[in-house]
Design brief:
Oligomer: heterodimer
Number of helices of chain A: 5
Shape of chain B: globular
Number of domains of chain B: 1
Number of helices of chain B: 7
Strand order of the largest sheet of chain B: 2-8-9-7-6
Strand content of chain A: under 5%
Radius of gyration of chain B: 18 Å
Order of helices and strands of chain A: HHHHH
Largest interface: A-B, 29 and 27 residues
Strand content of chain B: 15-25%
Structural class of chain B: alpha+beta
Distance between the termini of chain A: 30 Å
Number of strands of chain B: 9
């Protein structure tokens, strides 16, 4: 059902900035370039998957066109409801690891970041991207018990 | 700006004043009947130290100034100092766990300090998470560790700033205690740092507060709790009646669905949904 491991937050963020104004009726493969950033394993994007994704994006583009929504307008509206910054497990874990050593600064820094989840924060782009590979299998990052 | 600390909080404890208490005043694990709560004091800790603070939640409570400049904040929100006007208690509730009715649960590691009335007459329950055992702790120690407390502190405030209905977090206090935890229940217990979060919300009443009375046939107390909840948390519904109860239930269904839609919108994944 989910053939390509995709980062939800990054996916919505990239889709908001997908250029659709004035695109040809038949979208070509390059439309997927913007979205590749959201995929953890780009090699999972097979030819079949790409064809399905392009068909879906064409329908999406047609719908946006029908509603008369420009790229600029769509971007503003999507970014108002799809956060750019969320508290990812690995981010909390970084703050916990520091706090265990007596340095509580990252707790406050993350709280400051998360005060403005929908805004551009150019100096904090490192928290607006996919989970880093080291966090894939790490306790507290990829698995949590129900009350921890 | 001078620091107007927690000593200035204005408590008005309608929950404990209006609803039936467990008559047993001892802090021993037990089954409770026909009561909404048990009075219980937070356990004193050796070295409470404030390590994080939400200024927005402090503003809601009219607490101003630099909380790190005084030890009073750690003492109060670490559970060592119970202020005049507080009436600490743990709630009686039941619920489902892992798909099965589990009977009595209750606040096993949460202790409500009391309800604050702010300058605009809004009501805020202050609740310490990890403040020691209560009559509802079953086999556990009532404590919380730093890692889970950092997550709760940050996630509560992150959810608020995302625009979601959520409890808030005022403070994160290290207790100075060591807590033994087996993180993955696999036979590898470790010493971890103990910590306490102060949760803040208009109400901390859950679905389970009502469920336990229905399950045990304690219908008189059930009606008292429902009427209290409608009166203070849903005053727009008017005086209690069969119609009001139906409207109240419908509103809870709608607002709960709305909250979970928000969870899905922001990609929040959580397997436990038992809070009203």
């Amino acid at each position: 059902m989910y053939p390509v491991e995709t980062d939800m937050t990054v996916f919505y963020s990239r889709r908001a900035s997908l250029p659709l104004d004035g695109t040809p009726d038949e979208l070509n493969d390059s439309v997927l370039d913007t979205l590749t950033d959201a995929c953890y394993r780009p090699e999972q994007m097979t030819t079949d998957y790409r064809a399905t994704a392009i068909t879906w994006l064409q329908r999406y583009r047609d719908r946006v066109r029908l509603e008369g929504i420009s790229d600029a307008d769509r971007r503003v509206r999507m970014n108002a409801v799809n956060p750019k910054y969320v508290l990812r497990n690995y981010m909390a874990q970084l703050a916990i690891d520091k706090a265990d050593l007596g340095d509580y600064s990252l707790i406050s820094d993350l709280l400051e970041l998360l005060r403005y989840p929908y805004d551009e924060q150019p100096d904090k782009e490192q928290f607006a991207i996919k989970r880093p590979d080291w966090a894939r299998e790490r306790s507290g990052c990829s698995m949590l018990s129900c009350s921890s | 700006m001078t620091f107007s600390g927690p000593e200035c909080l204005n408590f008005d404890n309608k929950f404990t004043r209006n609803l039936p208490a467990d008559p047993n005043a001892f802090n021993s694990r037990r089954q409770v009947r026909n009561a909404c709560y048990s009075r219980v004091m937070p356990t004193k800790v050796s070295d409470p130290k404030l390590i994080a603070w939400s200024r927005e939640v402090a503003e809601l409570l009219d607490i101003g100034g630099d909380p790190f400049a005084t030890s009073a904040v750690g003492e109060v929100f670490g559970g060592n100092r119970v202020l005049a006007g507080m009436d600490p208690f743990a709630m009686y509730y039941g619920g489902h766990q892992f798909g099965n009715w589990a009977g009595q649960l209750g606040d096993g590691r949460a202790i409500n300090l009391g309800e604050v009335l702010d300058r605009q007459d809004r009501r805020w329950m202050l609740q310490l998470k990890g403040a020691g055992p209560t009559p509802y702790s079953r086999t556990a120690d009532g404590l919380a560790v730093l890692r889970s407390s950092v997550r709760e502190f940050l996630c509560s405030e992150a959810m608020y700033h995302l625009g979601l209905p959520t409890t808030r977090a005022l403070s994160l206090v290290l207790s100075g205690e060591k807590v033994v935890r087996d993180m993955f229940y696999d036979g590898n217990p470790q010493h971890e740092l103990g910590a306490i979060v102060c949760r803040v919300a208009p109400s901390v009443t859950r679905f389970g507060n009502f469920q336990i009375f229905a399950a045990r046939g304690e219908l008189d107390v059930l009606r008292q709790l429902v009427d209290h909840t409608i009166r203070y948390d849903f005053p727009h519904l008017g005086a209690s009646s069969a119609e009001t109860y139906a409207a109240w239930f419908a509103e809870i269904c709608r607002t709960t669905a709305d909250m979970i839609v928000h969870w899905m919108r922001v990609g929040f994944v959580h397997g436990v949904m038992n809070r009203a």
